[in-house]
Amino acid sequence: MEVKVLNISGKETGAKVQLPEAIFGVEPNDHAIYLDVKQYLANQRQGTHKSKQRNEIAGSTRKLHKQKGTGGARAGSIKSPLFNGGGRIFGPQPRDYSFKLNKKLKVVARKSALSYKAKDSNILILDEVTFDSVKTKNYAKMIADLNVSNEKTLMVLPAINNNVYLSSRNLKKVKVITAAELNTYDVLNAGKLLLTLDSVKILEEALAK
């Protein structure tokens, strides 16, 4: 798949890049995408939710009334889950939601997500992205010149660039990551994928094995 290369002003540079079919032109595997996205979202969960059981509630363990003869149900203590302020039955407890996936499956999922973006023509290739200073208006001008201001965008840089990253933080619907951090969820969550020439080379080395 051949794509025109743009500069940060949204103008064509005259160059074109051939996106590798092995990464951007595969037959998408929806189940692999599902599993990879499920793992990503599961790994974001802290799992620190906690409710108190009856043995953790502060209160007396005195029996409220005699077992029989009251005409009502038997009751052990005020900490019973049946009473207001008592312990919770089968409440949430701290747990780890993360799970493992085969590395090859994750590669298939990322290739599938990138292929969907390429098929829908939602990939823009930039020659390079550099800013002289940290200014939000620089990044805002760039996405305006690229006509993607109203869409969610994912900028993939070849390496960490603090000027670019810090300039994007105050903007909504914008995310900047490195090629090494690329994941299936972020690719699918973005409307437009902004790649630099060097980022494409890194992705090719990492995924086209």
From TrEMBL:
This protein's UniProt keywords: Ribonucleoprotein, Ribosomal protein, RNA-binding, rRNA-binding
Superkingdom to which the source organism belongs: Bacteria
Stretches the record annotates as Disordered: 45-77
One cellular component term from this protein's GO annotations in UniProt: ribosome
Listed GO MF terms: rRNA binding; structural constituent of ribosome
Any GO BP: translation
Subunit comment: Part of the 50S ribosomal subunit.
Function: One of the primary rRNA binding proteins, this protein initially binds near the 5'-end of the 23S rRNA. It is important during the early stages of 50S assembly. It makes multiple contacts with different domains of the 23S rRNA in the assembled 50S subunit and ribosome. Forms part of the polypeptide exit tunnel.
Family as reported in the entry's similarity comment: Belongs to the universal ribosomal protein uL4 family.
Database matches in NCBIfam families: rplD_bact (TIGR03953)
HAMAP family assigned to the protein according to its UniProt record, in alphabetical order: Ribosomal_uL4_B
UniProt protein name: Large ribosomal subunit protein uL4
Organism: Albibacterium bauzanense
Encoding gene (name): rplD
